[in-house]
Amino acid sequence: MAVDITIRIGGLAGQGMQFIGMLLGKIFTRHGYYVFTHQDVESRIRGGHNFVQVRIKDEPVFCHSQKVDILIALDRGSMDLDQPVLEPDDIMIFDVKEKGFTSDNPARLPIPMEQLAVEAGGMKIMFNSVAIGAALALLGCDLQPILDRLDEEFAARGQETVEKNRNCVISGYGYIKSNFKGTFPKKIPLAPYKKDKLFMTGSQAMALGAACSGLKFYSGYPMSPSTTIMEYLASLGRKHSIIVEPAEDEIAAINMVIGASFAGVRAMTATSGGGFCLMVEGMGLAGMTETPAVIVVAQRPGPSTGLPTRTEQGDLDFVIHASHGEFPRSVFAPGNAEQAFYTMQKAFNLADRFQTPVIVLGDQYLNDSYFTLDNLDPGRIKIDRGKIISAENMSYPVEYKRYEWDESGISPRIFPGQTEAVVYADSDEHTEAGHITESATVRKGMVVKRLRKVEGIRKEMDPPKVNGERDPDLLLVGWGSTCGALKEAADILTRNGLKTAVWHFCDLFPFPDTGLLPQISKKTRIFSVENNATGQFARTLSGQGRIMIDHRIFKFDGRPFSPWDIVNRVHRAL
Amino acid sequence: MAVDITIRIGGLAGQGMQFIGMLLGKIFTRHGYYVFTHQDVESRIRGGHNFVQVRIKDEPVFCHSQKVDILIALDRGSMDLDQPVLEPDDIMIFDVKEKGFTSDNPARLPIPMEQLAVEAGGMKIMFNSVAIGAALALLGCDLQPILDRLDEEFAARGQETVEKNRNCVISGYGYIKSNFKGTFPKKIPLAPYKKDKLFMTGSQAMALGAACSGLKFYSGYPMSPSTTIMEYLASLGRKHSIIVEPAEDEIAAINMVIGASFAGVRAMTATSGGGFCLMVEGMGLAGMTETPAVIVVAQRPGPSTGLPTRTEQGDLDFVIHASHGEFPRSVFAPGNAEQAFYTMQKAFNLADRFQTPVIVLGDQYLNDSYFTLDNLDPGRIKIDRGKIISAENMSYPVEYKRYEWDESGISPRIFPGQTEAVVYADSDEHTEAGHITESATVRKGMVVKRLRKVEGIRKEMDPPKVNGERDPDLLLVGWGSTCGALKEAADILTRNGLKTAVWHFCDLFPFPDTGLLPQISKKTRIFSVENNATGQFARTLSGQGRIMIDHRIFKFDGRPFSPWDIVNRVHRAL
Amino acid sequence: MVNLDDFYSDDPVAWCPGCGNYSILEALKQAFVNSGRKPHEIVIVSGIGQASKMPHYLRCNAFNGLHGRTLPVATGIKLANHELTVLAEGGDGDGYTEGGNHFIHAMRRNIDITYLVHNNKVYGLTKGQASPTSDLGYVSGTTPMGSFSPPLNPLLLAISMDCTFVARGFSGEPVHLAGLILEGLQHRGFSFIDILQNCVSFNRVNTYQWYKKRVYDIKDDPSYDPRDMGMAFRKAQEWGEKIPIGIIYRNDRPSLDEKHPAIRNLPLVKQEIDRASLEGIIEFFR
Amino acid sequence: MVNLDDFYSDDPVAWCPGCGNYSILEALKQAFVNSGRKPHEIVIVSGIGQASKMPHYLRCNAFNGLHGRTLPVATGIKLANHELTVLAEGGDGDGYTEGGNHFIHAMRRNIDITYLVHNNKVYGLTKGQASPTSDLGYVSGTTPMGSFSPPLNPLLLAISMDCTFVARGFSGEPVHLAGLILEGLQHRGFSFIDILQNCVSFNRVNTYQWYKKRVYDIKDDPSYDPRDMGMAFRKAQEWGEKIPIGIIYRNDRPSLDEKHPAIRNLPLVKQEIDRASLEGIIEFFR
Ligand SMILES: Cc1ncc(C[n+]2csc(CCOP(=O)(O)OP(=O)(O)O)c2C)c(N)n1
Ligand SMILES: Cc1ncc(C[n+]2csc(CCOP(=O)(O)OP(=O)(O)O)c2C)c(N)n1
Ligand code: SF4
Ligand code: SF4
Ligand SMILES: [Mg+2]
Ligand SMILES: [Mg+2]
Fold this sequence. Notes:
The complex is a heterotetramer, with two copies of chain A (574 residues) and two copies of chain C (286 residues).
Chain A: E1 4-13, H1 17-29, E2 34-40, E3 47-57, E4 70-73, H2 76-82, E5 91-95, E6 108-111, H3 113-121, H4 127-138, H5 143-154, H6 159-179, E7 198-201, H7 202-212, E8 215-220, H8 227-240, E9 243-246, H9 250-263, E10 266-271, H10 273-277, H11 280-289, E11 293-299, H12 316-321, E12 330-332, H13 337-354, E13 357-363, H14 364-368, E14 370-373, E15 424-426, H15 440-460, E16 465-468, E17 474-479, H16 483-495, E18 500-505, E19 507-509, E20 525-530, H17 536-543, E21 551-554, H18 563-573
Parallel strand pairs in A: 1-4, 4-5, 5-6, 8-9, 8-10, 10-11, 11-13, 12-13, 17-18, 17-20, 20-21
Antiparallel strand pairs in A: 1-3, 2-3, 2-14, 7-14, 12-19, 16-18
Chain C: H1 21-35, E1 42-46, E2 61-64, H2 70-80, E3 85-91, H3 92-98, H4 100-109, E4 114-119, E5 122-123, E6 129-130, H5 154-160, E7 165-170, H6 174-186, E8 191-196, H7 208-214, E9 215-217, H8 229-235, E10 243-250, H9 256-259, H10 275-283
Parallel strand pairs in C: 1-2, 1-3, 3-4, 4-8, 7-8, 9-10
Antiparallel strand pairs in C: 5-6, 7-10
Helix pairs in contact in C: 1-6, 3-4
One thiamine diphosphate (TPP) sits between chains C (48-51, 67, 90-94, 118, 120, 122-126, 131) and A (221-223, 250, 274-275, 278, 305).
């Protein structure tokens, strides 16, 4: 039987929901399944109403489902606020201590969680381990592999913690085996243990992609949902020769990145829209001095502080046009963790080859969600640092011009101190040698030189990935983190008799050569789907003149699209 | 005989060219003419090659001419670099002391300027007053009115200075009368003195427009070419109840403006593209908190530091899309000093009525150039501060919600301390009361509320001003400071047999209702003219779907268009 | 007369149980009551962070702006309406990293604002990363090898800028703190109060107990003269076994809002536009 | 051996005749010669302003970046290649207003950079507006009623941040200045030199003569100990009839670049990517 089961863990911030989500994800990933985990949390450290949702499937899965099969309600708030998503047959596990709630539905399952936790682990706060045991018992998982994974994941926290949590899980597991009176047909039989697939967040994939692309320097200032990139890279710092320097603000971050890059290493920063606002001047500096720089902008709902812990695709227009004056850049928006990993390579290569800033757009949904991946292959990452003159390939006597004219717009770089040449980089309009100029002729030449790169970059931009039916009735067009939901929506629509295809754009700007777009027949109805309120990408797309968009599906409440959100909106539009 | 004469004063920074330009402008403005003065200077305080060009016409004039009739070369550099613009019959005045230059053209007129200055004024550096006297003599101006104006303009500098400069002017004037051997048919007979017209720069017009619109608070950080706005407003500070607070950076500037505006006064800042980069986060803050703010962005060539003292229209796309997330704003680009004055009123009114940031784009050409204006009428300025609840019109008991839902998207403001209500403004997504929210429903409502304003604003946006022929062969489309050159180019083209019209846009974003655009027949060839390299406005315009642009005329060498630049490029394209 | 109830807000508090912020909130309300100012006469400008949520939890005018940008907004408000009592409030990250430049220049201006920094020595809201006041060696997500930089001393910095009112409070001494805040509100000029605040979720070293054992009221030493800059400079360096709280330094010089002639008689916000004088300036250009 | 000619640049100088910047340029070249470092081993990062044009006028690597942002760029360069001798250079506006936050935090990091601020007490390039070091009452385009705020004391600020090398030079004493710069270059850590510089076009008070009469070498007082913070704090406040130049304060603590284990043996820029170890971290996610 096909497995597609979702567990939601709801409760207060500080109750360890994220850890539970991660743990469940690892268990199922290592026992034959694919997992997608996303979080819906408030901007606070303790309390509030939050949930983490774990979707387990027997085939690759890249988005959440709106259908919850088991709700683990860790507090009263979750019981009230999350229960409405359940059908009568879906399970809710909650602590028997919560008063004022009674139900004769055996699927509403009170468990003496705290009590069992105290008995088994000696501490109330381990009641969430009891809940995990209970949920896994309901799902028909064998106990031993669960305990083995628990040992692995808790190992770092010491033997005592392992032991206590183990006992809590056993206790919750046992409680269900002996007390559950209902029937719950949804089972996830654990396959034999295999440590083959990967389980990671979009942020981790980006960080890893950067590290594998030769990142050496990172500077940043914490900002959700980008902070996890910085923290993960920092954790690599000691062993992997990456310097992560906490900046005093985002202005410092981008300028440090530019400095490091000028000195010759691959460098990047990450932030969210608000932090990127402060990097806009630095972005122009990179453009003018022709210094490579990779900037991840992990989006969250704006404007301004907005909804710090939630998701949106609202910054596309901004990053495409950020900074004054005219200079080349490129913008990408990967759709899942795997694409995020490989996109970083492309970002660094284009930054180096064209000596421009490159932006990679993420968002809270992509960055914070966990994905099971079949594999990531650093061997597939080819590092191309572009035109560089080193001491070996340099001609003497030295007469180096940093901005020497070239048809391609690209002048070879020298890293200061690596040859006997001296390098002048300048944010003013400059001569080929890099000195300030006031000349109209030189200015004109330099503008042309810089803008020449645009066509070079455009050639590197891939057309959208096409999925689903040929010659479709419906075409869903999207970009970035909606990728998984779009594909699943297309499958559902196709199953419902509407032949549906998806175009998913990762390479957004400069817009890929329109000649590369697949043919579309007149009968196809085109839906653009965006996690924002004004259809930013739809505007760009229409601007190309090749594609006419028939319907626009927007969502801007800070929450991600599930496939059914899209399907329902499509049906409503037809 | 029609007068259209241009005097160029070339020389080193520090030789007082700007003052001479201003002085000549005032003389001719007060004696029957219209003057347009622009400057072409380097980013330095002393030395280099610079010029100021004064165009005198007997009818209104809004741009420079490429044709120079008299060159006053204050240094050797100017003789070398400016002389090439002259025809044989045009005059060059220079100091006889400059060696290595001989010419038997009587129009190349060596004058012992320094010597006369020492004799007449006692100081070498007054040689430029000698030059003025000489030039005005050549132009057939009467001496007395010149001396009168001199007295007025130098009055503030003390009697002695007046006296000395007077003598130098007389000396230069006399020198020509007795020594000039050639013929110079171009004359500017001075009309009787009349203090009716105004003479001011674009920056002054903006500052004045703001003051007349009730500006009370300004904060900024110097940046060419916007600094003159700040300096002019500061000069009004003592007498006119305007606070001008020098900020530590542009971030502080925009945030102070937002604070002052929140507290209830009209507030603005001005900067150039680089400084605006640092205001982008603040702009989003104004958007989210719904605080009115007027920001002048006086453009200069970018990216980055670029060419600090020169001109470009390169920041349009940037300001339209600046800051993350989605919120309403409006953008204007007046075409001359008069329009600049009245546009400020509109900017403040829209900022208050729609409670959004408003951007007014200037550029070096508009901001630094002097214009003769027939008049400016502060009486025409109607101040509309939008929906405000004051202690008088407030209902008690007080239950005020800053972001109360309204179909228009606009909730009435209360200024803190002006009633007994308390006001909560918030950069996070917020409830109607202004408190932080995590609710998806509230979020959705607030996005809709804010975006509702867009249509309200659009109704206020004027279509382009149309000039020239009906049913034209050619249509020139432009925006901002190219206004004067466009109209003059159209006149020339029409005279040459090509019926030409101009559309000049001041109201740029949100794009005015396309229904308001005049009809255009198929045969009309449409030229977009922009002082940038990529045609930013042309892209917006084409995006509206009503107008197909046939040719694009760009200029991006940091110098402004003269009418003939446009005419020549049109002819080349045809 | 106002009382505590007048400052009550029903907005639900989002801080962790046990956080030092709660007592700061109470101290602040008490100071407001003692100041006699009414809720609508007070504005709090806050940034972003845990500390910056503060103004939602009491009743008075509030502008909850950007991370690090409290002081410019507060300055704009004060200059536009100097009859308002204006406070700025935020965390150590907000004030000393992102907002460091404004901090320096607000002190230079000596604008009449009371600035409260909840110094928990971490970036609380973003989950405990090292802040500029974190100890050397503090291990966090962004400093897994321990913070490489020594903590910034905000008091010393403020004295070096000749800030006219420099004080330190402790969230665990709310009565003392309320007194300090009141003095800050009454001081004409920039009043800076660094508030030692325990963060139960992330700062496991500088706990309530840790501080409780160490802090002492600077007034205990009768010879201490906060008007002596040299003394203040030394006192501000005291840290470790004994930590002084109270007013470390003060000085009198005119505040910015006293200097602007435009508002000598009336706040800007109450001034009408003087059309006649505007006509006058246009004349100047003829 | 390098000599002055090695540092010759033919880029035409855009400063006013008589400007103090010329002697700073000469002092800098001399310090470079004395340091023994070759042009390609040195990088100057400058901002925007008159002072910031400096690197064009000598021959060495240069990054002429944004107004106020010299220090982060310089920090990035130093961390990427600590074998380079890295300087940051700019004006008082660049460093103390726009760049104030980076200044504080660079001192905290103690990154091994030599930072030269040409302090002419005005915004020179934008035509003489008041800077944060302008005197109280300084009249300029943006302060027609005179500057309302007292000048910031950069030395005091630096001492309060425990900056490990705090010095003051004068453009009119180029030999002394060259000596200071050399000491700064040799100091391992953040070396800050505030350089009094006359601006003939806009600063009519603090002229060459004005300074010449007042400055004295701090070494003249043999009892002065720059390692005594209290002494330094007092000395830094001396201004008026007598103005001390020389090293005001110094201290030793490890510089940031010494702390990062990643670059203990080899600069980042010389390190190859270690593919094997990267495979290792991917394994962690299985
Ligand atoms: C420009 C910008 N950068 C980063 C952030 C993310 N951010 C929010 S709060 C915070 C730090 C909070 O630390 P602190 O100011 O000490 O306040 P606390 O939470 O500790 O009270 C950060 C980095 C932001 N909101 N804006
Ligand atoms: C972000 C930004 N704001 C403003 C400017 C304009 N600007 C250029 S130089 C300068 C001030 C220069 O003063 P200072 O740093 O003291 O250098 P000086 O010219 O006096 O040597 C300013 C404000 C700029 N280039 N960038
Ligand atoms: S994280 Fe720390 S500072 Fe923030 S509310 Fe919790 S205890 Fe307080
Ligand atoms: S303006 Fe002043 S600082 Fe600038 S070059 Fe001239 S004299 Fe030097
Ligand atoms: Mg904090
Ligand atoms: Mg200066």
